[in-house]
Design goal:
This protein is of the alpha/beta class. It has a single domain, classed as Spore Coat Polysaccharide Biosynthesis Protein SpsA, Chain A. Helix content is 36%, strand content 18%. Strands 3-2-1-4-9-6-10 form a seven-stranded mixed sheet, sandwiched between helices. Strands 5-12-11 form a three-stranded mixed sheet. Strands 7-8 form a two-stranded antiparallel sheet. The radius of gyration is 19 Å and the shape is globular. The chain starts with 10 loop residues before the first strand and ends with a helix. It comes from Massilia aurea. This is Glycosyltransferase 2-like domain-containing protein.
Length: 292
């Protein structure tokens, strides 16, 4: 990418991601497309152990003010290792200082995102949804919903959702079945304690299953649901490319969606061309969604 380096923003939040060496270029697309519409004061990367010195040099070249941290800075005996738990543990510490937005590398922002700017300015949480109706629910309702789809061999997320009402959490606790790939956490002095308490309780209930991939997302959903003023982002304005419309502003190419067709490549190329042509490229980015 020959696009200009990112300048430090003035919006009062931190943009945080955990990045693997295979996703460095994708992360730069995600970051640079996002900061066109919401540029953070701070950009932080939790570096997967695969990140090389060359990767670090590339990241610093494109984001001179970037803060790079080793993943092993963010471990605790009461949470699993791996499965991007380091990312969530990092967030739980940084929210003591500032609002934190968690941004996955497999995302692309193509139009203005006023809901995000509003969340930062109002210190309210947000979470990415994958359905038009993704409500915050009390835990008994979460269990009821999970039991309706629980089957042998179920995903750990569904199993966790069916059991969290039984682990002694606060009676007024909430949960949202969102996506941890794009989440906004307001400042909090208690998030880390809440995270560790939740993980301890779920470990006691589920044992070794709590180490399975997906439990970090369950925990993220629980924490953001109980943050100040949290709401699910409107879908499909924020969503996956298979559901995109002309109004879609933020695309999450989750899982294999980057690779099953040419949509991710085409959208990324549109973004790169627009960045090279900045500042008058907003229309180019917006037009790219209509082809998805």
């Amino acid at each position: 990418m020959s696009t200009p380096p990112v300048e430090r923003g003035n919006l009062p939040f931190m943009l945080l991601s955990m990045v693997h060496t295979r996703d460095v270029l994708a992360y730069l697309v995600a970051l640079k497309s996002f900061v066109r519409y919401a540029n953070a004061e701070r950009v932080v990367v939790v570096c997967d152990p695969s990140i090389t010195d060359e990767d670090r040099a590339v990241l610093r070249q494109h984001v001179p003010h970037i803060e790079l941290h080793h993943a092993d800075e963010f471990v605790h005996p009461d949470i699993p290792r791996g499965g991007v738990w380091e990312r969530l543990y990092a967030i739980s510490g940084f929210v003591r200082e500032t609002y934190v937005v968690q941004l996955d590398a497999d995302t692309v922002t193509v139009q203005p995102i006023p809901e995000i700017v509003e969340g930062v300015r109002n210190a309210t949480g947000f979470v990415l949804a994958d359905l038009p109706d993704t409500p915050l629910r009390q835990l008994p309702a979460v269990r009821e919903h999970a039991l309706g789809v629980l089957k042998p061999g179920a995903h750990i997320q569904t199993i966790s959702e069916s059991e969290m009402v039984n682990v002694g959490l606060p009676q007024d606790a909430l949960y949202v079945r969102g996506c941890a790939g794009f989440t906004g956490f307001p400042r909090s002095s208690t998030m880390r304690d809440a995270m560790l308490d939740f993980s301890r309780r779920m470990t006691a209930k589920l044992g070794a299953d709590w180490k399975r991939w997906g439990t970090e997302q369950v925990t993220s959903n629980y924490l953001v649901a109980n943050a100040h003023g949290t709401r699910s982002l409107p879908f499909p304005k924020y969503g996956t490319p298979d559901c995109a419309t002309a109004e879609t502003a933020f695309l999450h190419f989750i899982g294999s969606m980057r690779f099953i067709n040419s949509k991710y490549e085409a959208t990324s190329r549109d973004v790169i061309r627009a960045l090279d042509a900045a500042p008058g490229a907003g229309a180019t980015l917006a037009q790219s969604t209509t082809a998805l």
